[in-house]
Amino acid sequence: MHPIAARLAPLKSHGARLAGHSLKSLIAAEPDRAARMALKVDGLYANFARQHVDAEALDALLAVAQASGMGAAIRSLLHGESVNRSEGRPALHSALRTTFDAPVASNAAAEAAAARQRMAAMAQALRASGVTDIINVGIGGSDLGPRLALDALKDFGDGRFTIHFLSNVDAHAATRLLAGLDPAKSAAILVSKSFGTQETLLNGALIREWLGGGERLYAVSANVPKAEAFGIDPSRVLPMWDWVGGRYSLWSAVGFSVLLALGDEGFAQMLAGAESVDRHFLEAPADSNLPLMHALFAVWNRNVEGHAAQAVLPYDERLRLLPAYLQQLVMESLGKRVDNEGAAIEHDTVPVIWGGAGTDSQHSFFQALHQGTQVVPADFIGVVEPDHGHADQHRVLLSNLLAQVEALANGDEGDRPQRHFPGNRPSTLILLERLTPRSFGALIALYEHSVYAQSVIWGINAFDQFGVELGKTLAGGLLPVLEGKATASDPISAALAAEILARG
Prior knowledge:
Layout (H helix, E strand, L loop, with lengths): L2 H16 L4 H7 L3 H4 L1 E4 L2 E4 L7 H13 L2 H9 L24 H25 L5 E5 L6 H9 L9 E5 L4 H9 L6 E6 L6 H14 L5 E5 L2 H6 L7 E3 L16 H28 L6 H15 L4 E7 L6 H13 L17 E4 L10 H6 L6 E6 L7 H20 L16 E6 L4 H22 L10 H14 L8 H13 L1
Helix pairs in contact: 1-4, 4-12, 7-11, 11-16, 12-16, 13-16
């Protein structure tokens, strides 16, 4: 048996012991459960009372974390040690917002601070120009993080710039976007670490032509020569580093569009919120460590309860893009089938992440959550104080949030089979006092560190993503096929390409 599977095995006995106990009965047996299973950090409140565990099972989960060397693993991450073992480098996204004593992390933090100074100077120059519209061109982590942040925090900007996003290589996206813009009043930021990302370069070339040259092109990249060859002056190229993965890069110059929208102080507040969770993750005891506890329940639901999916359900329209962002963060980080030593693992890892904003989702897929045959654990996220004056409407929103969490847990017998709700469906409730740059930063850091803690328990690398590469390589080989210049080696691909060519 794989050592990690052996470490997880004792949890199964607790799962078997609790199989006959409903969430409703567990809650009834522990009158202090709501208070005992709640944690707070910097404006975030999380309640785990409706997870299908009792005190004994939780102790077993904490023992697994300890046996995994969790404390040392957290210190290794935040002190800049080489936690990305397959690529032999640290993962220093926390250094983008935090200075620790370790020299590597401190050096990285100094580089990040210098980059923010350059970002501020570029932003000032753009503010003094006639540019009104900024197009962020990137894909994956170069798009999802800034897109989420700006959608969530739009009300905190001064409105000086309108920020647009272009990711899909499908040219319909570009033509629709550009149709409503004036090239004389627009600038674009091309975000690609290698400056070799096919989608970004194709969209960038289209925009360069539309702008009439590279005068109002900016870049965020580790490859300055390639950006310069593309027509972008090196003075307008902001740095990226190999010690920050794309899905962890919002805090870097990848967030330049966020800084342009929020201003220097707003961007700094977002970093500060994330930093507070970094400190908490490093310093808090295991049983009161919010990211670790979130991770432990994810492990329980995947490995003990056998749930293959996880829903993310923000009850705030401003967080509607959070499920899409977390799809990349979680599934790219944890979608691994070998351990840190390259050996095949024998335990399940990543769940499928999906979701949508309440209350819209209640009228689409919640039927399956309540009465479907597959149990889907859920994170419900709410904001206590809105930034609008419609208090009555907000209370309706929050009442729906609380009702759904209760209904999923407790169920209802109903007066006929079709009206029976089985209940016993686990969830976590996360509340933000207000949605601000600081609380947003804290929320994203919570999920980052939860993902890392899960990877430590599962013995996998959260920071490589080789699974992304095969499809890209094959696409490069199939392009000449669709140009009629080559024949595909795969017989099905050859037949499909022939069908496309015949219809084109």
